[in-house]
Amino acid sequence: MKKITAGILAVVGGLTIFIIKFIAYIISNSVALLSDVLESIINIAASSIMLFSIYVSEKPPDESHQYGHQKIEEISRLIEGILIVMASIFLIYTAVSRLFNPPELLFLDIAITVSIIATGLNFGIGYLLLRESKIKFSPALEGDAKHLLSDVMSSIAIWIGLGIVHFTGFSFVDPLLAIGVATLIMKTGLELVIKSSNYLLDPVSREADMKIREILKRHERLFSGYHELKTRRSGNQIFSELHLVLNDTMTVKEAHDIADLIEQEVKQELPHLTLTIHVEPESEKQSAQTIKKIND
Fold first, then answer.
1. Torsion-angle region of residue 29: left (phi > 0), alpha (psi -120 to 50) or beta?
2. CA 273 – CA 208 distance, rounded (Å)
3. How many C-beta atoms surround the C-beta of residue 207 within 10 A?
4. Which residue spans of the chain are classified as CATH 3.30.70.1350?
5. Which pLDDT score, from 0 to 100, does residue 163 have?
6. CB half-sphere exposure, 139, CA atoms < 13 A
7. How far apart are CA 54 and CA 79, in angstroms?
8. C-alpha to C-alpha distance for 252 and 7, rounded to whole angstroms
9. What is the mean pLDDT of residues 248-274?
10. Please, are residues 108 and 167 in contact by the beta-carbon 8 Å criterion?
11. Can you name the CATH fold of 3-200?
């Protein structure tokens, strides 16, 4: 499945789920189920942003963005996290206002059944997006998937609480439950904000670093050494560079062929990684070491 197709599925599915959850809220007048409705509104907004970010990220590099547009997926995940936090704050405010004056709840058995249908759809879409995010290495899809799956967990908590209200008549449990769900939702949002903020700073990719070293180990007979290996992640792409030390007697073509061999093998095993190799003669490396010793 293409990323853009997964994004469209998330938006259409979000609209459908919102309608079903809104019906459950209207039937019951439950603020806990209202939290589910608000979560769906955020899902739709977040999925729309995610869809736009995927569309932009798949554009080829141009003169203004020579390394591509992939980082917009991280911006999408950051915005989604902020929206989740804002929704949870509003939900807590609404629940607290009802805590001391709990409304009468109606037809909870029907409302919970309708909510279960919506949550089943939520889980299916969330699972699919999470699987595709791992295949496509997409932070935008991952953010949306985790948001939907956290919504599933909060819905289950709501059913349990409303079941207690249904059998005991304790209406105050409804706003308390909404506050608890809102707290969990806020936690998910904050995690997305922290994670996306970190990735916007182009962090080191430890997995890519280890894989490159493993590939270099396989071909160590071809060169004298390497240094300055660096990696950084930008969106769903990883960029890396290193200095490869070669024997002075090698021709330009021989040096190029070795560098090209390593770059191609890295690309084969890490399709989302672009490696740039700077070739330097062995004598230059030895001279630099000699100068360093003198300075020390």
1. left
2. 8
3. 13
4. 206-295
5. 80
6. 29
7. 14
8. 47
9. 89
10. no
11. Alpha-lytic protease prodomain-like (1.20.1510)
Amino acid at 21: K
Q: Measuring CA to CA, which residue among 43, 33, 49, 75 is closest to residue 236?
A: 75
This prediction's pTM: 0.61
> What's 194's DSSP letter?
H
The CB-side HSE value for 170 (13 A sphere, CA atoms) comes to 10
The letter for the amino acid at 35 is: S
What pLDDT shows up at residue 149? 80
179, pLDDT greater than 90: no
In the numeric block, which tokens belong to residue 111?
């409302």
Q: What are phi and psi of 276, to 5 degrees?
A: -115, 125
Q: Which amino acid is at 168?
A: T
Domain 206-295 has CATH 3.30.70.1350: yes
pLDDT at 35: 73
Pairing type for strands 225-234 and 237-246 reads: antiparallel
Q: Is the pLDDT of residue 239 over 50?
A: yes
* pLDDT at residue 291 tops 60: no
Cβ neighbours of residue 283 under 8 Å, at least 6 residues apart? 248
Mean pLDDT within 28-32: 79
CA distance 232 to 78: 19
Higher-pLDDT residue of 276, 101: 276
- Tell me where in the chain the CATH 1.20.1510.10 domain(s) lie: 3-200
